[in-house]
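Review form for a predicted model. The reviewer records the input and the model, then writes brief findings.
Reviewer: anonymous (R2)
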Amino acid sequence: MASNQQAEPRVDIGSVMKDTKAGRVGAVAGAGDGKIQLRPLGGGMEWDADPNDLERPSPREELKLRLAAENERSTYGRHW
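Model under review:
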């Protein structure tokens, strides 16, 4: 029997992805209803992205993005 439902996209929670449509970068927070939920690397509100609009940054680019987010957090940081 064929299913009319699409399989959920396979992504690793925490992996960094570029949302080419939104022009944003985020860490994968989850997946559901055919969408991937991304959260900004520096924290903040999640957004839904179409899996077809996502691409993985190169390892060098990912390191640069994570470092920039950490530098921003340490400069303007959150103090709990």
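Findings: The longest strand covers residues 24-32.
Further findings: The two ends are 53 Å apart (CA to CA).
Recommendation: see findings above.
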